[in-house]
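Feature request, filed as a ticket because there's no other form

It would be nice if the structure record came with a short human-readable summary line next to the tokens. Right now we just get the raw output. Example of a typical job, pasted below so the devs can see what we mean:
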Amino acid sequence: MAENPYGGEKTEPATPRRRQPSRPWSRWERTVPCIISSTWPCLWEAFEVFGLPDSILSDNDMIFAGRNGPSWIESRLMRLDIDVIHGRPYHPQTQGKVERLNGTLERELLRDSTFEDSGDLQRGFDDFRQRYNFERPHEALGLDVPGAHYAPSKRKRPRAVPEISYHPGALLRKVDSTGRISFKNFKVEVGQGISGEYVEIRDGQDCLDVFYGSYRVLGFNLGEDRVRRFRQYRKVPGGR
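Raw output as currently delivered:
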């Protein structure tokens, strides 16, 4: 991974959510602080090794959760047909399994160990992953090891992230550099993570819907002097 230009070192986990109910964790790498330039390459490499998950569950860090629309990483996950799920703010129990793993890693590797450099730390992570997945019995699995219950996803990672496409005649608007679109003299914020790309506007049941590919990213109503926004990421089967 790239060196931290700001100095110092920080370890950040990358543990994509998989489909299997009992699943070993896939990667743990020493990375720079949680930024797109370090997070996305780690995810992309994990997808190549383990396949694409159905969904990814994350907290609400700005890297993963856009504040007024999809973040850059969310938009890439959507283009890979990976559902984006976020835990409730200030509710760490949602990621309870990850928090438990963090505690186990802290107790069994990090608390009483010293590492000469980042390479030495990475080797420690790799050794721990081997023990955790294939040697250490887990009570919740009837003392089996997680590796005995895991199979990689059958969905292979493509060579590149697919481009978004829309059906002929779709009502499209291009997202500007501030993350907004213009519609009937109103500015509607749809997210800086998709700046420079196109979104589709459709008539919803009681509002106008904004779609990014097959995902509904928000709904809005136009008033005399304001826009009401209803954020919701939801995939519509068949793209309609």
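Something like this underneath would help us a lot:
The longest strand covers residues 227-235.
The two ends are 40 Å apart (CA to CA).
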